[in-house]
Amino acid sequence: MSVKESVARSIQQLTTTQYVRDGQLLPGILNFGMPSICDLGVGGGDLRQFSALLKERIQQFEPRIKGVDVVIERGRLVVIGTLPDSDEPTRWWL
User: Fold this and answer.
1) Which one of 26, 46, 68, 76 is least enclosed by Cβ atoms within 10 Å?
2) Is 55 helix (H, G, I), strand (E, B) or coil?
3) Helix/strand/coil for 42
4) Segment 33-55, tens digit of pLDDT
């Protein structure tokens, strides 16, 4: 499995795992995952909120991606970042 495929799998796990909501927990494995996008509501603003949170979570849990960004293109989330073995940004469509 390539690094790109491994990172894609890690992002998929992060986006499909619902995290524990407890403000008293320190950042760590118990907070792995994302809230359900349905909990955020409906609309473009909510997708932007989700993408900002996803960017934070990727920075926390996927150190292989440098310069990570999460953007919305054609109504879909796209993770963009540079892998250690490349100078060119890689894109992962969600």
Assistant:
1) 26
2) helix
3) coil
4) 787 766 665 555 678 888 998 99
CA pair distance 16, 12, nearest whole angstrom? 6
94 neighbors 11 (Cβ within 8 angstroms): yes
Domains in the chain, CATH or no CATH each:
3-93 (3.10.450.40)
Buried-exposed string 17-48: b where 16+ CB fall within 10 A, e elsewhere: eeeeeeeeeeeeeeebbbeebeebeeeeeebe
Length of the chain: 94
Look at the alpha carbons of 53, 55, 56, 61 in this order and tell me if their dihedral is positive or negative: positive
**Taking a C-beta distance cutoff of 8 angstroms, is the pair 55, 69 a contact?**
yes
Percent of the chain topping pLDDT 90: 49
Q: Where are the beta strands (DSSP E) in the chain?
A: 66-73, 76-82, 89-93
How far apart, in whole angstroms, are the C-alpha atoms of residue 63 and residue 49?
22
pTM for the full model? 0.82
